[in-house]
């Protein structure tokens, strides 16, 4: 197969160096790719697309003119990361999740970080995702953030940054697992013998994390996945993970609180539930505690949770650490709780709640990316260099009206990966969402969801905004790749 001409442009390309030669991590893959006959790659891509359609691997897009349900977009060319670089990424993720867990626990209990003046009290009190109902709560095993998805990007200089944290109901891991299976079936000739770290044990690790965090004294805990239902954008993932873990998928109407415990309705009567992997936002999980109009949750669920008789994963209230204004303080949070410098740096961030920083943002809207602090999915973002004057004026009015709800960052040139576009390989921008599990152990999935902006020049990789995905290969060079899990005690001892 002829690869030339592939022009990577000005961005850092994950597969090819500026001189056009494959990077060391991609050499073997490119060699194998070149052995394919002309048209073979395109045919394999069509086979993969058909498989996704036949298997019903979909996601929902609210308000999409073609209907709510779309086939998951997948590109056959993988993103490849070598073991040495992944070791650094993995250490940075462990450090970050460990510190954020301590931070959330502190906010809802002693508030030491605020009393010591390391983070402004008003910033926390004004966060839309702070939940006063969680004040004084101590979750089982002290874990708030059981499942985390951390969005990583690489700039044109090759530096990896954390773009944002997702500690409420992070989604996408089912597509990581399906992408890998699809790659094995349709690209086996290239995949075999590449020493790619396996990811197939994620459901097992997820179940172990959930059961490890069951309430004290429960010897044989029962876990369930709580879904809002079939119209949720991630419903495929909810069903997939429940099936892979071998646990029941339930809706709020399937659960009831009786005698101080949560029970699941079954054909044989009520069965006690000890751990709930909830895929419902805080506001909807308990109408008696949060939104009274919620038809998705369970009455008095929070009473059982606060009494320590059921574990909710992730714990309610973790969204305060998702706040993009709080994100700007993560380097300080890591330094405060762990006494360490941050391993994976943040993108430089301007807080519009600060007058001086706000004035800088308002004077440079044509150069910055402006984001609402509590939105997700790529919605509400102003891409300054690509925006019109009218769009910038509208954004400026919104910032002046409610400065706390906005941040701004420089426009980074996301790295690219070769992507099959109309029978040619073209560079398309990507990010990476690794998944981290925190229970008695800290487990980092070796890889994650590489999201790709399929539109030429676009930096928005979200599937809801026209993005797709790729398989992510973490190469194992001999024994150099670390174990994906480590006990929390060992991690704390190592960093004491």
TrEMBL record:
Region span, Disordered: 1-24
Domain of life: Bacteria
InterPro entries attached to this UniProt entry: ATP-dep_Glu-Cys_Ligase-2, CP_ATPgrasp_2, UCP005522
Gene3D superfamilies: 3.30.1490.270, 3.40.50.11290
Ranges where the Circularly permuted ATP-grasp type domain occurs: 78-453
Listed name of the protein: Circularly permuted ATP-grasp type 2 domain-containing protein
């Amino acid at each position: 197969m002829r690869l030339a001409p592939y022009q990577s442009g000005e961005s850092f390309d994950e597969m090819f160096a500026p001189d056009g030669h494959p990077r060391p991590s991609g050499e073997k893959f490119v060699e194998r790719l070149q052995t394919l006959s002309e048209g073979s790659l395109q045919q394999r891509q069509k086979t993969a697309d058909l498989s996704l359609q036949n298997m019903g691997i979909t996601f929902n897009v609210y308000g999409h003119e073609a209907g709510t349900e779309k086939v998951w977009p997948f590109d056959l060319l993988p993103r490849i990361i070598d073991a040495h670089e992944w070791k650094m990424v993995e250490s940075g993720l462990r450090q970050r999740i460990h510190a954020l867990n301590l931070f959330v626990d502190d906010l809802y209990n002693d508030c030491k970080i605020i009393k010591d003046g390391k983070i402004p009290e008003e910033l926390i009190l004004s966060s839309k995702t702070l939940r006063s109902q969680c004040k004084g709560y101590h979750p089982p095993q002290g874990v708030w953030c059981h499942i985390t998805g951390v969005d990583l990007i690489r700039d044109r200089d090759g530096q990896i940054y954390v773009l944002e944290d997702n500690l409420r109901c992070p989604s996408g891991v089912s597509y990581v697992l399906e992408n890998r299976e699809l790659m094995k079936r349709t690209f086996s000739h290239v995949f075999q013998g590449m020493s790619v770290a396996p990811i197939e044990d994620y459901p097992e690790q997820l179940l172990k994390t959930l059961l490890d965090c069951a309430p004290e004294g429960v010897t044989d805990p029962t876990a369930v996945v709580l879904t809002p239902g079939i119209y949720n954008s991630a419903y495929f993932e909810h069903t997939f993970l429940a099936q892979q873990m071998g646990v029941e998928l339930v809706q709020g109407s399937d659960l009831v609180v009786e005698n101080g415990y949560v029970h699941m309705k079954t054909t044989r009567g009520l069965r006690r539930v000890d751990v709930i992997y909830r895929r419902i936002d805080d506001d909807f999980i308990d109408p008696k505690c949060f939104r009274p109009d919620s038809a998705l949750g369970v009455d008095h669920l929070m009473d059982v949770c606060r009494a320590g008789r059921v574990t909710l994963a992730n714990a309610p209230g973790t969204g305060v650490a998702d706040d993009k204004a709080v994100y700007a303080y993560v380097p300080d949070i890591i330094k405060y709780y762990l006494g360490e410098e941050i391993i994976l740096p943040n993108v430089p961030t301007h807080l519009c709640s600060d007058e001086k920083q706000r004035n800088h943002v308002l004077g440079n809207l044509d150069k910055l990316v402006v984001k609402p602090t509590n939105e997700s999915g790529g919605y509400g973002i102003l891409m300054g260099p690509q925006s019109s004057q009218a769009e910038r004026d509208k954004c400026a009015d919104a910032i002046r009206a409610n400065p706390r709800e906005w941040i701004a960052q420089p426009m980074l040139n996301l790295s690219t990966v070769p992507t099959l576009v109309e029978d040619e390989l073209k560079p398309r921008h990507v990010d990476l969402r690794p998944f981290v599990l925190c229970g008695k152990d800290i487990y980092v999935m070796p890889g994650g969801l590489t999201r790709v902006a399929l539109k030429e020049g676009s930096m928005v990789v979200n599937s809801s905004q026209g993005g797709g995905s790729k398989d992510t290969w973490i190469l194992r060079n001999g024994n150099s790749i670390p174990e994906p899990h480590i006990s929390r005690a060992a991690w704390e001892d190592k960093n004491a």
